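Internal ticket #5521
Category: modeling
Description: The requester needs a full-assembly model to guide mutagenesis choices. All entity lines are attached below as received. Residue total reported by intake: 1190.
Assigned to: D.W.
Attached entities:
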Amino acid sequence: MDSHAETAELREQFETPAQQKEISTLGMWIFLVTEIMFFGGLFLAYAIYRREFASVFALASNTLDVVIGAVNTAVLLCSSFTMVLAVRAAQIGSRKALIVFLILTILLGGVFLGVKAYEWNQKFEEHHVPGPTFHLEGTTQQGPAQLFFSLYFTMTGLHALHMVVGEGLMLFLLWHAYRGKYTPSYYTPVDVGGLYWHFVDIVWIFLFPLLYLIARHQH
Amino acid sequence: MITEAVQEREHYLNASYGIKSWLLTKDHKRIALLYLHTITFFFFLGGIFATLIRLELLTPKGDLVSADTYSKLFTLHGVIMIFFFLIPSIPATLGNFFLPMMIGAKDLAFPRINLLSWYLLVIGGCFAMYAMLAGGVDTGWTFYVPYSTNYSNTYVIATGLGIFIAGFSSILTGLNFIVTVHRMRAPGMTWFRLPLFVWSNYATALIQVLGTPVIAITLVLLIGERTLHIGIFDPARGGDPVLFQHLFWFYSHPAVYIMVLPAMGVISELVSVFSKKPVFGYKVVAFSSVAIAVLGFLVWGHHLFVSGQSVYAGLVFSFLSYFVAIPSAIKVFNWTATLHKGSISYATPMLYAFGFIGLFTVGGLTGLFVACLGVDVHVHDTYFVIAHFHYIMVGGTLMAYLGGLHYWWPKMSGRMYPEGWAKLSALVIYLGFNLTFFPQFILGYLGMPRRYWTYPDEFQVLHVMSTAGASVLAVGYLMPLIYFMWSLRYGPIAGPNPWGATGLEWQTASPPPAHNFDETPIVTTEAYDYAALAAREEVKVG
Amino acid sequence: MQEHVASIKTYTLVFLSLLALTLATTLVAAIDLGAFNVVMALFIAAVKMMLVALFFMHLRHSTILTKVVVGGGMLWLAILLVLSLSDFVTRGWLPVPGK
Amino acid sequence: MGSELPLFPVQASSVAASVDHLLYFLLAVAVFFSVGIFVTIFYFAVRYRRRSESELPVPAEGAMTLEILWSVIPFGLTMIMFAWGASVFFEISRPPDDAQQIYVIGKQWMWKLQHMEGQREINELHIPVGQAVKLTMTSEDVIHDFFVPAFRTKADVVPGRYTTTWFKPTKPGKYHLFCSQYCGTNHYAMVGWVYVMEPQDYQAWLSGGTSGSLASSGEKLFHDLACVNCHHLADPPGRGPNLRNLYGSMVELTGGAKVKADEDYIRESILNPSAKIVSGYQPIMPTFQGLVTEENVLQLIEYIKSLTPKPVPAPAGAGAATSKQKPTKQ
């Protein structure tokens, strides 16, 4: 594969570098629309079952630790912040800042995944994982309670998977940034990587209130 | 594969040789031929299952295959024909090959993603083939829960993964087409100078991008439910099986427009070229493609009228379903109007176009029957529905696919197909098709349910007629396979523009050079401007 | 398209408001607003989404086509949710079990 | 080669005629447009066939009036189809109040039908002509579908909830019953017959062999499962709400929501008690999920229904001595 050949110069089917950049971002945005529809299916299932089993969902949601959830959201927002600074660094061509901010983004992403792993582990210990060992205190409706946690694990699991892919993308960008490949006239991969990262952050922005904050007033 | 007889000019087929030049190609034309081979294989595989089903139904008793083999037959017929032949058929072969050429581009926006799309289809196909060879899947192509998750013990997961992967091939093709049409048109190629084939593939791409991800998440949930029992569709734990049907049909109804819209694009081209007239009401036909793509997403509930869906939702979906019928009707009227005062040639592609318009009209009108709440309660899940969607899929999309294949064969291979044999096979297919599927309308209204291994004796006469038609149809489909191969070696050499068409793809050589055009064409005329074409011909000759 | 380079100050301002909104939605959830809780949570999440999309994803000075693509994505998500829910919400309106 | 060749299904229910009239209208529109387009294309294809390769037809400009014409007219026709279809659909969806209740349980690959008088039938249904019948159906495993072509009615039978279909047979005879939602290997075998009989034949069939009405077996179960310990039928209220006069009434739940006590509510309260707690009571009732079969649930529902004296006289069909009127002894 001639990956070296397509560094800065133009791939053959495009007329101008600007056309190539605009096409890449347009392609990523359309890909993000497919991701919106992909997560959309899960949000539909969540909406239907929350409406049908409101009380059990509230009870189950209150077993999640809201402080950890909020802190984790802040961590992810912070990683978005460092990501956008990385893109800005690439725009103005300061290679060192680009590398620093990419590393920060990767680390913050790692922290988020670590906290998520800790939460999941906590759920395993409290027997809140759907299956034969499942038990949720305070309700006889164990079935719908398992439904909540199925949705919880599916949605956060899918989001975590997208985070892992994002981390891989960031490492790829870090490696090429380290080799000085990105210049103010050619930094499309960083911009496109940023779009993907911010999208994954937006998905979490919706997941956090829907999963954690259903009925905190009923504590 | 192509002998030296084709004049020794540099073109995309002899630009490079060897397996690597094909399996690692980034040329949209070569990728189109790779797709052509793949989907032809899957078409004949699905056809074998269809023949076995029809043979089994020759007699009321089940005496050819066992009951669960019969379930596997109709399931695999559905899965392979829909996901591995119909959905990729026109966009991936004719669309891949000609869309860039028609807009004057050197290639698609993302050539490497285009190759990845083909690999995804092949890998998905391998999963489906593994499931088939290992023991088949017996849930029906619709995979309804709770049967597919808790009660079937066949290869549901392998098939589901196969469709999941093949779905990404469709998404990436759609993404590629949208970006290409928006950003890589030749100078002068405004939106209203685009050939209608490009318009319909653009509308199809919108559906592929917006719809396919929902079937992806549906399959993820189905496989999750089947392996980990997450309970999302399990009624014992509060899950609702009707939710699966909503998620499934949200994609699967627009999917039928993924299958039929490119066919409409081909027909617009054929009708225009073979009556040497621009398509009547160009803008209306173009916008009706996009209208079908958009409205196609609002109507899926007509598959759930008797499923336990609420009565009021049934009203909403029936009402919206009639909106999506109007653009299709407009297209048929405009094609018919194009013929008026035209110079109509009876070349094989035009025979397929006539066949398409006739059969698609019947298919579309019976669609009004199943969208009507009162009648659908009776005909839902009967042979009436089977006849309806085969009229549109086989009578419509397949006819247009064959018509398009004949129409563009000289451009793709530099060879003409044998006209006489082609006309005969078109006629055989048309007659065989009607004999196969028209009796099924009557069967359906009589109440014969679908997916039945045996049936009451009084339905046998209609089933025998249908099976007879199926054998004629099978013969009709084998003929093109034979004479297309024959034409590659012995077919007469085709010039750059054998049909006198106005598209940009006919202004370059046949078969076209690797980069489509020696220099990027400048478009100055409107779409389908035959007068300008004639003037250009004189200039060249004079 | 990318000539415009936003200043660090704007990004920091957007970032801080995102943090503030996260805190706000967590605190608001503790107050019993009945059905309004969901609306409030989704509203705050939507504001945060707009902030990230407009500023961090440079949607503000993207091409019209990109904005249409994003709008289309949102609209299709709405079609999926609204039309599907139209079934689940109207169940039982006809006093016949299962209709 | 098989017996006679039927081309149109027999009309054997009150709704069949209206569905068929709707079909005739749709057929008329379809034939009109199909023939219209076929003939037009054939005529144009012959009239304007290509005489020579060099002829160049003058391109016609698109006529917007024509476009609007063949958009609005089809749209008008489709709206008629929609409205007429919707009215027939409501007729099919709403059973009349005096309909005779029959319970249907779909189970992988057989139909179990239960009459109020206690008769249990497998894959067969005997009903009197002229008497509307309401089927309340559920499934024990996958989705099935109760389809009687002669009656033009069909409804999916979904596990985990009740669905309803109804018909009023108008012609005595023996009609096909099909399962029309794929439910597994023997989906084809899940078929049966609906016998529509003259009223007196039906009475003769009815009186032959009955093992006590559904409500009486429900009452026995009510005691066996010790429901009576909490749900006292006499005055001192027990820990559970008194079920007398419950069916059809509006029940106030904790938190103020009001819900109608229909079959769905009773079934959910048996299988998922804490889903809806009546206000003023504690969520202490254990779940009976897995302890009771679908038939038991139906029997309990029928018994609870019998605790609500029916104001309207019993339907004509069930002339035999039903235990519905007399409150059974403790």
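Resolution: model delivered.
Comment from assignee: The mean pLDDT of chain C is 90.
Ticket closed.
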